[in-house]
Amino acid sequence: MKSLGKKIRLLRHQNGWSQEDVAKKLDISIPAFSKIETGITDINLSRLQQIAKLFDLSVVQLLNFNDADEQKKYNSDLELANKKLQERNNEVIELQKKVIELYEELRKTYKHNS
Question: How far is it, in rounded angstroms, from Cα 30 to Cα 43?
Fold first, then answer.
């Protein structure tokens, strides 16, 4: 069951949900959900169906969920997000340089006119 718990945790992370979020959606306590993710608690069919539905999967899809493929997709998405973040960071740096240049021009003009 630990493998299934890892799959559930990965799906939860991909959805940006906390353990509390999922526990509320399943109408169980946070510790009870934590035990599902860690594999301490066996999941009955009813709970398995409830979890699959929560992630918009069939029970078969949930059980066959491939961590490696999903992790590759997650890493690819993360890499793309990091690239976009770096581009935006570079844009901010360029804008900061322009602000400094304009400030210096204004300062020189002010000194010249004083």
Answer: 15
Fold of 2-65: 434 Repressor (Amino-terminal Domain) (1.10.260)
Please give the C-alpha separations between residue 99 and each of 66, 86, 91, in angstroms, as whole numbers: 49, 20, 12
What's the distance, Cα to Cα, between the start and end of the chain in Å? 78
Q: pLDDT for 66-83, tens place per residue?
A: 766 666 777 788 889 999
Kindly tell me the number of DSSP H helices and DSSP E strands found in the chain: 6, 0
Q: Report DSSP letters for 73-100, one per residue.
A: HHHHHHHHHHHHHHHHHHHHHHHHHHHH
Classify residue 1 by its DSSP letter. Answer: -
State whether residue 47 is helix, strand or coil: helix
CA distances from 63 to 37, 45, 53 (A): 14, 12, 13
Single-letter amino acid, residue 46: S
Confidence (pTM): 0.56
